[in-house]
Hints:
Elements: H1 3-13, H2 33-52, H3 59-65, E1 71-73, H4 76-85, E2 89-94, H5 106-117, E3 121-126, H6 148-175, E4 185-190, H7 192-195, H8 200-208, H9 213-218, H10 220-227, H11 234-237, H12 239-254, E5 256-262, H13 266-282, E6 297-301, E7 314-315, E8 318-319, H14 329-337, H15 341-351, H16 356-368, H17 374-388, H18 390-404, H19 414-417, H20 433-449, E9 466-470, H21 471-476, H22 481-486, H23 493-501, E10 505-508, E11 523-525, E12 537-538, E13 542-548, E14 552-559, H24 561-566, H25 586-592, H26 598-605
Parallel strand pairs: 2-3, 2-5, 3-4, 5-6, 9-14
Antiparallel strand pairs: 1-6, 7-8, 10-11, 10-13, 12-13, 13-14
This protein binds tyrosine.
Amino acid sequence: xxxxxxxLRRKFHRTAINRADPDPWGSQAxxxxxxxxxxxxxxxxxxxxxxxxxxxxxxxxxLEERGLVKDIAGxxxxxxxxxxxxxxxxxxxxxxxxxxxHVGHLLPLMALFWMYLHGYTAVTLLGTGTVRIGDPxxxxxxxxxxxxxxxxxxxxxxxxxxxxxxxxxxxxxVKHEHKNHISRERQVLLNHTWLEGVPAMxxxxxxxxxxxxxxxxxxxxxxxxxEGDDGMSLSxxxxxxFQGYDWWHQYKTWGxxxxxxxxxxxxNICAGMEAVDAMxxxxxxxxxxxxxxxxxxxxxxxxxxxxxxxxxxKSAGNAVWLDxxxxxxxxxxxxxxxTPDTHVERYLKLFTFFPSDEINxxxxxxxxxxxxxxxxxxxxxxxxxxxxxxxxxxxAEQVHKSIFAGRSTITFDKSALGxxxxxxxxxxPQLSKEQASLLEHKLRFAGKAKPSSTAAEAGDGLxxxxxxxxxxxxxxxxxxxxxLLAAGxxxxxxxxxxxxxxxxxxxxVPRSSDTEDKNILNWSPIEPQHTPKDFVIQHSERFVVxxxxxxKLRICRLIDEWKFKRKGxxxxxxxxxxxxxxxxxxxxxxxxxxxxxxxxxxELRR
Length: 606
Ligand SMILES: N[C@@H](Cc1ccc(O)cc1)C(=O)O
């Protein structure tokens, strides 16, 4: 291994015990409150001196260098100054419209996490009240109404997820040797707790009378909606008022002077700044209203698109969920692993806490041998570590290595196949009734968002990879195209056939004798003359394991037709392209085969 590789490896495997914090158990906690406060001020003043002397980067510069800043509301210079002078509070709000965050939410959150690691108060706010109104920003139609039950399930799931995310951030802070600033604080707040108690009169007389209609009416979303047939409801139009009130509440209780959001939040953030000013005028808050050190500021993060121009984080029309039950660690790993070389450096800056010099090292190693995809692996593992935790990240990497090196630690024994396949052969844990219903809700949601594939199963490391198929599909199929379609790997039988013809799909060959090492998965390219029924792996249950490219793996569990129907499952429908039956040149065939990132297919052929 190269020196660079060794360095990155060491860094990656550093554990929480090997922390640089000289005061790991927080003797600070034993100091009196007054002493802590004095310490906090002194430490911050020292920090500000270093920044002003040019010996340390300001917080804003760091966020800009990471590529996390698109627009600043309130003035760059004033914000830079404020962030240098005071460990202010900042917040990111998310409405629980689904049971999980998706990768699109990560950018503003990453900026917030960076701030926390540098000693600011960071608030993640769950819009348990605002979700009932529905943010119209960037939408051409009103959101569909959620049932109370669904809303509650989403709130519970997202609240848990935010807590876990925070735990992972703290572990990452230790790993990346961030100083344990005494000024740092973090909160997960739920906005229904205050929004439900706001008197309507207050909203109208204090906020409503101050906020000007002109800016609200000029917003693109409002204009387009008003021009459309359905118009816009008053509640949607008033949404920014409630988001603004959130800010006010946090401003006075937590010193939150900054809001971060995706680029579609710029209008709401500006409205919020106006709302806080209005409330400051109405409530007697001491201090000069024009003092820039007391004002509010906003930052939006850029909107990411894939190289082909799609919204980032949408894979084939589906969001890339951060919840393990909705998208497995393995699938999340694969998603980031397929990042093109041209984008990987930018994504490392955006989605990881690696300092720039280590990203540069990784990029040097990457350029020296792009086929190893060192930077992509680093990115994929880091994102899984952030979203699912360190163990899941190590596991996803190991599963990847074992599958694509032809070796697998997946043991096809009874315990592993009892409920779900786990990479360690450990059965999925017992769930309480509440956990089971939450899980079911999440999976239903994931299923809804993925109409083209059969519902994924719950498991602990390889969720989303197991699909149920009726036994009859495998028994009657004369070639594998039908199985690839039923497993959700291709969108039509002819696409499946082309994939097979180009030797782009693989199947696990069942062991012919008990003496063969059951830890080795014997992958074979699927040949046109292969019949699926010859590839059934028989254990306590029956399976066929297929994949295409490096990342699309499906463990197809075969069940009786009636059971399949009873579970309410349907096979994915064919999406035939126009004129697909016409013979194609080899060049054209390549184009319509489901896209396997270039580098991956090249690697597979090697
Ligand atoms: N409106 C934000 C979520 C949000 C909710 C409440 C807030 O106070 C802030 C942000 C969104 O849809 O992304």
